Amino acid sequence: MAKLINIKPYIDRIANGETSNILLADPISEFIQSSGTSGGQPKLIPMTAENFEKKTLELTLVDPVVKKYFDGLEKGKTMSLFFVKKGSETPSGLTVRTLTSCYFMSDSFKKSAPKICTSPIETILCLDHKQSMYCQLLTGLLQRDHVVSISSIFGSVLARSIKFLEDHWNELCSNIRTGCLSDWITDPGCRNAVSPILTRPNPELADTIEQICGNESWEGIIKKLWPKAKYINSVITGTMSQYISLLDFYGGGIPLVSPSYGSSESTFGINLNPLSNPYDVAYTFLPNMAYFEFLPVDKDGEEKARESNLDGVSSQWSSEMKNANGNVEPVDSANVKLGQYYEVVVTTFAGLYRYRVGDVLKLTGFHNNSPQFQFVERRNTILSIDMDKTSEEDLLKAIGNAKRHLEPLGFVLMTFSSYAETSSIPGRYVLFWELKFKERNRCLKLDAKIMEQCCSIVEESLDFTYKSLREANKIAALEVRVVKHGTFDALMDFYVSKGASINQYKTPSCIKSEEAVKVLNSGVLEKFFSPKTFFLS
Length: 537
What we know:
The chain is 33% helix and 22% strand. By secondary structure, the chain is an alpha+beta fold. The chain has 2 domains: 7-271, no CATH class; 392-529. Helix 7 (155-178) runs parallel beside helix 11 and helix 13 runs antiparallel to helix 14. The chain is globular and about 70 Å long. Residues 303-325 have low confidence and may be disordered.
């Protein structure tokens, strides 16, 4: 029987003043704080100088891959939308930051940013996210003829930035027309950084942007504002796949590139085929980043893992490896099988030992001997009532089917989330949808019959267990709650107020926090229920 230590108490001891050699040989330089929005509380992840270098190596590997597919990138800049979060300290004095903040505050990024980004480093490092976003959009518009790519860490951040632009384009045009920055931008770093770019009144550019943004529809707005942009660089797999159709709508045909797969815990792989269908992206694992093992799981990512020999103390901090008959053993990269689903388990250079990240992956191929995986879902983002367990993957597909029913009518599903309503018996699944028309000035008037059909389509797309329980009245009719514009921005603000980073924020596909549900409920405009009463013939 092999023992797996529970490392969380060791991390807590180091955070409280003990030396890092109780866990690993190299000194811990700081702690990385995970976002906590994928499901669960933020965690402290040890970081060493060597491990930080390995994480930044990922960026140097992605760049030449992208340049194989897009010419002329060296002749322009990236219109970046990057943000940082204020750090904190442990009782022992070690810095606690998000991974993206750690990178953007590093000397290497500060040195390279002026050459590759339209956003001055001071605007990226501004802790006021509204001022930061405004100034980054402004400098991106001022340099629109030099922009060859658009970049944000996650698709959700880019979607929110476009909504922010929709609310502020008149003011941005006014700044460009007069050559003066708005008075409410009070951050000294932002004002000083923008002034060398906003050097004079430019009414011609203001007229051009005003004409583009004043159109009835914002379809293709990114392509129109930044006509030389060759691709959009943003993670759009997993939960972020809900933003693909929205970014396609705004992008006007600009390819969506999901460059790499990583987390606060480790870098995993890169996308060697940037032009692949966004729904079919596979990441080639980088074996020098960490030691990877793969725990076979069922398609819904649950049952085999529960019977495995990695019964974590708290789902991710591993405890003891049992070798009882019938338990599923993790396999290494050389023994994974095509088409099989796995939960990734990682041992890092910074002290994580057989750590279950919680991501469910599907093996789709190999590059030389390195496995290539599609991201399927987070293992703990599951709706559950009675005996039914609806996975994130199945939920995304079901909502995608309903979305196709709405698109010909001119609707765009901006974003969504869900939760299991169990306060009444039987319980039901509730979906929160933020909808808008493609034409900006049209009022959102919803046809009850069409929305009820969408509810039915979602239910029909779910599995046999759900349909059986629904027909037996052990699950009540699925409900869609349509929320007003900006409700999901309020949800992001809620999570940011609780410690999440705007850079690393992922809209939860399944919410289990009652406080978060209250935020969404506060924005509900209308409610619709599935009229369907039978499913099985």
